[in-house]
Design brief:
The protein is of the alpha/beta class. Among the domains are: 91-321, Up-down Bundle (ABC transporter transmembrane region fold); 344-426 and 501-588, P-loop containing nucleotide triphosphate hydrolases (Rossmann fold, 3-Layer(aba) Sandwich), CATH 3.40.50.300. Helix content is 66%, strand content 10%. The chain has helices at residues 2-13, 16-19, 23-57, 63-109, 112-117, 120-162, 164-211, 213-218, 222-274, 280-321, 384-389, 414-420, 435-440, 448-457, 461-465, 484-496, 514-528, 540-543, 563-569, 571-588; strands spanning 344-351, 361-368, 373-378, 399-404, 407-408, 421-424, 502-506, 532-536, 548-553, 556-561. The protein has a six-stranded mixed β-sheet. Helix 17 links the parallel strand 7 and strand 8 (532-536). Helix 3 (23-57) runs antiparallel to helix 10 and helix 19 (563-569) crosses helix 20. Bound molecules: adenosine-5'-triphosphate. Residues 116, 353, 356, 360, 378, 380-386 line the site of adenosine-5'-triphosphate. Adenosine-5'-triphosphate (ATP) binds at residues 116, 353, 356, 360, 378, 380-386. Residues 344-579 form the ABC transporter domain.
Length: 589
């Protein structure tokens, strides 16, 4: 139990950098809460004075003052609770905002390999639900955990002061409760973490089915997936019910023990009144104090549950924040010799995906002279996409090196490297933003003229002009409101907008129909002139764009040469091209 609670405290202590800037309003809010609770605790003591004074002596002279005091305490309690809420709202929201911003920033900096490992729904639930759990804890649970513990101790002290015997009775009933609450904590933590992970999986499910709604509808897989979703939802429900079960047991004890305590106090107190050792006022006050302490005592178990839940939410958040950023700029980056020529070389490059024992690339040597376009061809799974990903350092080579103008890409700052390279991928990812924002992708240096030029190059200008607000038209999530070809052309415009020296295109023409492809190809041919480009090609027509072709077979370069030479001399190349031809014909059908 000790280890468990130590680790809970240690985990929560990690939130300190976020809580530290708001510690003043947080402490003030805590003081206001304590003040309010103390006001409430004072009322039974005045009741004692009323019972043992004006009522016992039938003398009402002091009554107005005592009633006024109750009124003042009541108003002060209300005012302080109001202040508590006002004081805590902003700091709690600030903690949430900072935490969320840091997670987002970290997610941007983490390497692609990290994102391969984590489901997006899991990351989504960490950045939303878990962060909200932390906010609730800061705004409420941590304050009441401290204040209620203090009030229970003070209240027990008051009971002992009123009557040591009545105090001892209350203590005998409170101690087991507090002990049970702490014992319950460790059981709850396990089930709370499980529920949070399952909620993350469920978020992934919802996200994937929303993004893939077209595929699911087209294949009529909606009902099947609904069943799978329901099964997962049931798992989560079962875990939530297990949580309730653990909690219900504690709750039952929490209810019964204080009732027993009050009954015992009434019995002991009445006995004391009859033999003259206790006054009626003292018994009334003791019972009132005990009743007042019920919520602070009852709440401790629940507040500990919240604390546990927050601890596992913090743990999940820090799994992201602690993940190492393996792809970073070097401490002393080298600069590319000016002007950048775009001479790209792969030197004995080997690569295995993190955690995989099989190498995807096994000794690649390839030299792209400045201004040259090299098409990468190969059977599916031969490693073409992987090879292109090594140039902008989406992954780092396992051994060997990739250089631009003789400088290892790992010796360049990421900013310089990625500023030198333009990229477009097979899946043209667009954001819920305007066309201009999608092409410029947050760069302030790219004005409208540059964006328009890039659109012209990608043969996208015409359809963008036809959109209701031209460049300013917001395109829907993932660009769903555009056709596949239109999305591809926007992705191409994005790749060329900053005039990069090196272009890495992972089959950028896959979604284009034959006519549009011819148009974009024509435009691309102009762009490719003067730029070094590595283009993954799945169609013979794309291959024709290239000055040379490199054929990948099982992670190695089996042949490099001009398309026509390879076609004449290399049987394997001919075979590959004929399968590509067949695929193209199928695609054209
Ligand atoms: N993120 C990843 N983690 C682990 N293995 C991966 C990952 N991405 C790809 N692979 C594996 O690496 C190998 C090469 O994949 P890659 O995508 O580079 O092939 P490709 O030649 O581009 O294929 P295609 O023509 O079908 O696009 C495949 O066996 C694939 O399963």
């Amino acid at each position: 139990m000790k280890d468990q609670s130590t680790s809970t405290t240690a985990t929560l202590r990690r939130l300190w950098p976020y809580i530290k800037p708001v510690r003043k309003p947080l402490s003030l809010s805590m003081c206001a809460t304590l003040g309010a609770m103390l006001c409430g605790l004072g009322i039974p003591l005045i009741t004692q004075r009323i019972v043992d004074g004006p009522i016992a002596h039938r003398d009402l002279s002091a009554l107005p003052w005592l009633v006024l005091l109750v009124l003042v305490l009541g108003c002060a309690e209300a005012a302080l609770f109001y202040a508590r809420r006002r004081l805590i709202a902003r700091p709690a929201a600030e903690v949430e905002a900072h935490l969320r911003a840091d997670i987002y920033r970290k997610l941007q900096r983490l390497p692609v390999a990290f994102h391969d490992r984590y489901q997006s729904g899991q990351l989504l639930s960490r950045a939303s639900t878990d962060v909200a759990t932390v906010r609730r804890w800061v705004a409420f649970a941590v304050i009441f955990l401290v204040v209620n513990t203090a009030i229970v101790i003070i209240g027990l002290g008051v009971l002992f002061w009123l009557s040591p015997l009545l105090g001892a009775v209350a203590l005998a009933c409170t101690l087991p409760l507090v002990l049970m609450s702490y014992l319950f904590e460790s059981r709850f933590k396990v089930v709370a973490r499980k529920a949070q992970d399952q909620a993350g999986d469920l978020t992934t499910n919802v996200e994937e089915s929303v993004l893939g709604i077209r595929v699911l509808k087209a294949f009529g897989r909606g009902p099947g997936l609904s069943d799978r979703f329901s099964a997962r939802a049931r798992e989560l429900r079962d875990t939530e019910l297990a949580k309730v079960k653990v909690f219900a047991l504690l709750w039952a004890v929490l209810i019964v023990l204080p009732e027993l305590g009050i009954a015992a106090q009434l019995a002991v107190g009445t006995f004391g009144i009859t033999n003259g050792t206790t006054t009626i006022g003292t018994l009334v006050a003791a019972v009132a104090v005990s009743a007042y302490l019920r919520w602070p005592v009852d709440s401790i178990g629940w507040l500990l549950a919240e604390t546990n839940q927050t601890s596992s939410a913090t743990e999940r958040i820090y799994e992201v924040l602690d993940s190492p950023i393996t792809i970073t700029s070097p401490e002393e980056p080298r600069a590319l010799p000016a002007p950048v020529r775009g001479h790209v070389r792969f030197e004995d490059v080997r690569f295995a995906y993190p955690g995989a024992d099989r190498e995807v690339l096994r000794g690649i040597d390839l030299d792209l002279v400045p201004g040259e376009t090299v098409a990468l061809v190969g059977a599916t799974g031969s490693g073409k996409t992987t090879l292109t990903a090594l140039v902008p350092r989406l992954y780092d080579v396992t051994s060997g090196r990739v250089t631009i103008d003789g400088v290892d890409v790992r010796d360049l700052s990421l900013e310089d490297l990625r500023g030198t390279i333009g990229a477009a991928f097979e899946e043209p990812v667009l954001f819920s933003a305007s066309v201009r924002e999608n092409v410029a992708l947050g760069s302030d240096e790219l004005d409208d003229a540059k964006v328009r030029e890039a659109l012209r190059v990608a043969k996208a200008e015409e359809f963008v002009e036809a959109l209701p607000w031209g460049l300013e038209t917001r395109i829907g999530e993932q660009g769903m409101s555009l056709s596949g070809g239109q999305r591809q052309r926007l992705a191409l415009a994005r790749a060329v907008v900053a005039h990069p020296a090196v272009l890495v295109l992972d089959d950028p023409l896959s979604a284009l129909d034959v006519h549009t492809e011819a148009e974009v190809e024509g435009a691309l041919r102009r762009v490719l002139h003067g730029v070094t480009a590595l283009v993954v090609a799945h169609r013979p027509s794309t291959v024709q764009l290239a000055d040379r072709v490199a054929m990948l077979v099982d992670g190695r370069i089996a042949a490099v040469g001009r398309h026509h030479d390879l076609l004449a001399d290399n049987a394997e190349y001919r075979r590959l091209l004929s399968t590509m031809d067949e695929e193209e014909e199928v695609a054209a059908l």
